[in-house]
Structures are given as C-alpha cells and as structure tokens.
Design goal:
Number of strands: 17
CATH architecture of the largest domain: 3-Layer(aba) Sandwich
Oligomer: single chain
InterPro entries: CDP-alcohol_PTase-I, HAD-like_sf, HAD-SF_hydro_IIA, HAD-SF_hydro_IIA_CECR5, HAD_sf
Order of helices and strands: EEEEEHEHEEHEHHEHEEEHEHEHEEH
Shape: elongated
Strand order of the largest sheet: 7-6-3-15-16-17
Bound molecules: SN-glycerol-3-phosphate, magnesium ion
Number of domains: 3
Radius of gyration: 26 Å
Distance between the termini: 38 Å
Pfam families: Hydrolase_6 (PF13344), Hydrolase_like (PF13242)
Largest sheet: 6 strands, parallel
Number of helices: 10
Strand content: 15-25%
Length: 380
C-alpha cells in the first residue's frame, strides 16, 4: 500500500495506457500534490495595543512575554493563535520597529502583523508622490525618511524650514545634529500641498508656527496670509492630516503623558485665535474606522499566512488595550470584543472608563487567559 506524507495525495496527470489501470501503471506525469483542506478556523485571534499593554516606552511589561507564549501554542487549543499589533505610536519604519519588538518581546514580530499610526499613509503616498509636503513629528529626519520610503518623494520637515530661514521661529536654535539632518530647499519657491503629522512633535512651538504659515500662506511660506474663509474656492487648500488622536498615552511616568492629539488641540487653539475658526483635517489612528478596517484586513491576511491559507470566516477578534478612547472605543465600533487592562492610561481609581469594554483585566496575560478560557468554555 502506497503511503504518502500527511496531507499529501497522489495525483495522476497522465497514464501510459488505460488497460492496466488495475495493476501498477507506468506513470509518467506524477506529482505529489497537497490535497487542499482549508485550515481550521482558529478559535480566536488577538489585536494588541503596544504602549501601556506590552511596553511602557522601552520597558517590556512582565506579563507581555507570558501572554505571547500562550499564543504561540501553549494554550488549551494546543494551536498557534494569530495576533497583530496595532499602535498609535510611530516614528520608525515598520521594519525597524518590528526588529526592536522582536528583540524586546522575544518572539518574531513581522511587518505582516504590525500597524503603526502612519502605516495607513502608505496607501495615500501615490497621490502626493511628486507634490512637496510637510511632515511633522519624531526626531531630526526620522519621519522625513519614513515618508520618502512610503513614496512621498518631496517630504520636508519643519527643521528644513528653520534651516532655510532661522527667523521663521526666533526662539529656538537648531542643534548641530538637527542641522545635519536638514535638506536645503527654497520654501519661497516651493508650494507645500499638505501637512502630515506622522508622529508626536518634539518642538510644538516651531511646528505650530510653521504649520500655520503653510496653511495661511496657501502653501508658500512667507507669502501673504489669507484667512481660509476668504480664500477663493478655486485655490486648492492645504490638506492637514493627523495620524494619532491620543490626547494622552501610557509612558514611563506614573501619570499618562500628552500625545499627538494634545498637539492637535494646541494647534487648533492657536489657529482659532488667529482666524476665528478651526482648520479642517483628516484623522487616522485608533479609534478611527479607517484604521480598524485596515487592521481587520491585516489580521485576516496574517491569519491566512500563519495558517497556510485563507480560513473560512473571521475568527472572533479580541482587542487588548489600555486606552478607552482609542483601543476600546474603536474595537467596540468594529464589533470586536474589547479588553481594558490596568497597566497604562486607564486607572480604575479614576472611575468607570469612558467606553465600556467587554471585560477588564489586570494585565495582558490575564486578558489573554480570560479570552482563551471563554472560547474554550463556550466553543470557538
Ligand atoms: O504615541 C503613542 C501613543 O499615543 C499610544 O500608543 O501603542 O498605546 O497605541 P499605543
Ligand atoms: Mg496604549
């Protein structure tokens, strides 16, 4: 009796002659093919927030490694449970950040399971490929390089603007490292068509000043200011895009720190002070629908990758986060289950969370254990 490795079957492509089918035929066209059986739908899948759940800045939270160990197979289902990481953080390339996370968490984290707040802009870059744009956030030229890597060929930073004309913001001098990271550009001859806030700005004052200059001068810094209410509709307004709405985030300090969302509030307050109006903007990052829909696609594709083929139907999704405003609100709106942990922004002593999670847990390990037990008890 012919035996074949698990999951393989014999496929006869061509017989020498029909007569001797019963006997052992001389087979020319023979190949071992994998009989395709749709991989079993995993019992559940996870979406992890990073800051305040797995890490606090660069410190790995003790429960993080134990939680991932459970998903790598050491669980009641004796199977790998797919998971992705979705953070409102940013400021590094996806490849670099995955390299860091892999060494911090001790498990391979690949770009197919990783989303940061500006990853979604990859799909926008083609529209701005040849357009000069301003990118904000991060240190020196980190964010400019990420934007160029996404396809924003003419991405410039506020440090480039300051280097071009130091009088644009007289209260700060560039450090030698910052100056070395700048690109010489004549902004009086360059019309910036959009401002993308990729990551948390380091120099709020410089960034607010330059962003206001770009918008009120119709993209050409130094040109006369025109109140947007009075700008002719024929003129294409400067686009303003924020990637992370978090007012606060869970860092090393014992109280949450101001995030990119707080920078947006500060910018709009100054803009309103000057013009009487807030400037319209596009928002990405958790809890926006765009980011959760993007995450659902990434989770489905990564699950298929882990399991070696598209699985029938979407396994139940558990989002584990520390921020009710971004992680829990977004997961609830996406129809996922949501688990709020007490290791980051949210502190139960501050009262009930602003968005009700499916469950609350001390830390990420307790959260994963709770979800696995629930699926085991009530069936996948
Ligand atoms: O700057 C990052 C912060 O806003 C939150 O990151 O990982 O908790 O979504 P995360
Ligand atoms: Mg967080």
């Amino acid at each position: 009796m012919l035996r074949f490795p698990q999951g393989h079957a014999l496929r006869v492509t061509r017989l020498t002659s029909p007569r001797n089918v019963g006997a052992f035929a001389v087979l020319r066209g023979v190949s071992l093919t994998r009989s395709y059986r749709k991989p079993a739908r995993p019992p559940l899948s996870f979406v992890f927030d990073i800051d305040g759940v797995l890490l606090r800045e660069s410190t790995v939270l003790p429960a993080a490694k134990r939680a991932l160990t459970l998903l790598e197979g050491d669980n009641a289902f004796r199977t790998k449970i797919p998971y992705i990481l979705v953070t409102n953080g940013g400021g590094k390339t996806e490849e670099d950040r995955c390299r860091d996370l892999t060494s911090q968490l001790g498990f391979p984290i690949t770009t197919s399971q990783f989303i940061q707040c500006h990853t979604i802009l990859k799909s926008h870059a083609h529209r701005y490929a040849e357009e000069p744009v301003l990118v904000l956030g991060g240190r020196q030229d980190e964010v400019k390089k990420i934007a160029q890597g996404y396809g924003f060929k003419k991405a410039y930073s506020t440090l480039d603007v300051k280097a071009w004309n130091p009088h644009v913001w007289p209260f700060y001098d560039l450090t030698p490292e910052e100056l070395a990271s700048t690109t010489p550009v004549d902004f009086s001859k360059t019309r910036l068509s959009a401002i993308f806030v990729f990551h948390d700005p380091r120099n709020w004052a410089l960034d607010v000043q330059v962003a206001i200059d770009v918008i009120l001068s119709g993209g050409v810094i130094g040109a006369p200011y025109v109140n947007p209410k009075k700008r002719s509709s024929a003129e294409k307004p400067v686009q303003l895009v924020f990637c992370n709405p978090d007012l606060q985030w869970g860092a090393q300090f014992q109280r949450p720190r101001l995030g990119q969302g707080a920078f947006r509030v500060a910018f709009q307050a100054v803009f309103k002070g000057l013009t009487g109006m807030e400037y319209p903007y596009e928002q990405y990052g958790k809890p926006t629908n765009a980011t959760y829909q993007f995450a659902e696609t990434v989770l489905r594709e990564h699950t298929a990758k882990v399991l070696g083929g598209p699985v029938g139907g979407t396994p139940s999704v558990y989002m584990i986060g520390d921020n009710p405003e971004s992680d829990i609100a977004g997961a609830n709106a996406a129809g996922w289950s949501s688990i709020l942990v007490h290791t980051g922004v949210y502190n139960p002593e501050d009262g009930p969370p602003t968005h009700q999670p499916t469950h609350e847990a001390e830390d990420v390990e307790a959260a994963v254990k709770w979800a696995i037990e629930l699926r085991r008890a009530y069936g996948a």
